[in-house]
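Sequence of Lipid-binding SYLF domain-containing protein (Candidatus Desulfobia pelagia).
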Amino acid sequence: MSLQFKIAVLFFVTFFSFAGQPLARNHSDSGQKVIEASGVLEEIFSIPEQSIPPTLLRNAHAIVVIPGLIKAGFIIGGRYGSGLMMVRDKEGAWHYPVMVTLTGASIGWQIGVQSTDIILVFKNLKSINAIEKGKFTLGADASVAAGPVGRHAEASTDIQFRSEIYSYSRSRGLFAGIALEGAALLIDQDATWALYSRPAYDILHKTELKQIPMAAKQFRQVVLKYVQ
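Predicted 3D structure, token representation.
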């Protein structure tokens, strides 16, 4: 076994051991993540020509925002990030966001660490129901494609938006579609409880909620401003 391979395996095990550990959660940590996610959306949506097509947003059933996803690699690579998922129910009402994590691995020549903002747009509730039941893998449990960019993108790219999920990334100021097959999305029950003092199920299924944190209200307002 080569030294490079041993180092790569050690990196892989160390990275995912850290990423998979339940971190100490508190209201401040979760609230800060919500604020960061709101900032990501505001910055991206502020330039329609370089943003998500309006048609896709108007027909979305969920939006996931992962600010500052960490991608690191040494031959074997890994990515880990936490963020929010906001869901629109079958009646058309958008609920407050729950906290989620996104993890994944890749093999191939790669070295270094990179921070990337991720946005996922879901076209139907079937995928959301699957996420509620446990870990959900992009590309395996639902089709995922790099999303088109720009208000006029539907005129030239996949006009029917046939994929179930569209994925985007922003790195070093560049916003573009990205392939995320194999990444696992999971509801973070602890972080959601830290934010609301109630389970994720309540947030996903109830609209009449009291004592909602201001950061969560503001995130919802940002989403509603661009999806309606």
